[in-house]
Amino acid sequence: MPLPVVFPDKHVLHVPDGEIWVGVRIAGTELPARGEVIAATLRRIGYPFLSPDSISLTDLGSVHNPELVDFLRTAWDRWQASSYPADPGQDRVVPYVFPLPDVIPGRRLRQPASVGALTGMFAMDTMTLIGPGTWEAAEDAAAAALTAATMVAAGSPAAYAALRPPGHHAGTSFYGGSCYLNNAALAARRLVDRDLGPVVVIDIDAHHGNGTQQIFYETDTVRYGSVHIDPAAGYFPHWLGFADEVGDGEGHGANLNLPLDPGTGDEKWLGGVGRLAAFGDGARSMVVSLGVDAWKNDPESPLQVSIDGYTRAGTLLGQMGIPTVIVQEGGYDLKTLGDLVAGFLDGFQRR
Ligand code: SP5
Ligand code: ZN
Predict the structure, then answer these.
(1) Out of 73, 90, 163, 223, which could bridge 141 as a Cys pair, Cβ 3.0 to 4.6 Å?
(2) 236 C-alpha to center of ligand 1: Å?
(3) What are the pLDDT digits (tens) for 291-303?
(4) Residues near 44 by Cβ (< 8 Å), separated by ≥ 6?
């Protein structure tokens, strides 16, 4: 039996229409076509598809604080009601000032009147734009991850959530890196709630999943392990993803970062994936943050992994033999995106 694919078709409503990168609006790569390409490829192969169950704000509260959820839910309407669409003519929600800790030393953080300033309380970067359908799509993506986790908790050996927008850069109270709600973290929490803890989250996206790490940093009920491009080499998320981040308190030793040099190819990358599998030893279930942007021609990462490398990674993780929720993260080369995902899923099911 091929594993089920949960596909949130509202993803098409999220049209970031670019990103503000170093102050310049560029085209961006987290496009609606990504979701369509993955779905078309898996449909052609014959995977069974289903739609996500609906979701409640309480479900999101298992990971995110209510202020972030409320902001994301209302940001577009607030922006429309503000003067920004007319002056200066900005049609997407984007932050403008950031309340860094020393800017307001010891002061109560007041709710600013300006939505541009309010956005700076939640956004970790300027690249992650909010448009008219962003909230509906982000909610549907989270619902897809939760549905996949529910299926696995009910006895399906594995399920794949073919979602966008991705989630692993979003934390308890912040969004960024093209992510709004942390889909993988929501799935992990659901597995714990359904008695499948301890859970291991294995993140093979090319970038470090700083949001997932933050959410579970002080617990050992959900471990987090990631292989990614070294932030010290100048890559997003820049401040996080270093090997000395090992978790705090009860979570000490339950966080594992394996940063890799630019240009790293299959053998070393798969060595990292193997170490993550070993790190998951003793976990009763797993969430895979499946970013396929470590692919050698991906525009967002200098890692050099092949399609065969992703297939072999699937087999390494499948061989762990534990109930698994696979959640889509990044991967931006539209020509190869479908084949990379299909390769991983194929390898995974070889077990
Ligand atoms: C989920 C995910 O993979 N997020 C990745 C976000 C990384 N974005 C960093 C973007 C930096 C600007 N990209 C311009 C690429 C020019 N080659
Ligand atoms: Zn990525």
Answers:
(1) 163
(2) 7
(3) 999 999 999 999 9
(4) none
Tally Cβ neighbours within 10 Å of residue 162: 27
Q: Give the pLDDT of residue 148.
A: 98
Q: Is the CB of 176 under 6 A from ligand 1?
A: no
Alpha carbon 340 to its chain's center: 17
Is the pLDDT at 106 greater than 70? The verdict is yes
- Structure confidence at residue 351 as a pLDDT band (50, 70, 90): low
Interatomic CA distance for residues 54 and 268, integer angstroms: 41
299 CB near ligand 1 (under 6 Å): yes
C-alpha separations of 278 from 2, 259, 271, 272 in Å:
25, 17, 11, 10
Helices (H), the chain: 32-45, 57-60, 66-81, 115-119, 134-153, 183-193, 210-215, 266-279, 307-318, 337-350
Q: Dump pLDDT digits (tens) for 330-347.
A: 999 999 999 999 999 999
- Cα separation, 307 vs 313, in Å, equals 10
Q: Give me the residue label for tokens 């085209």.
A: 27
Instruction: Indicate yes or no: pTM above 0.85.
Output: yes
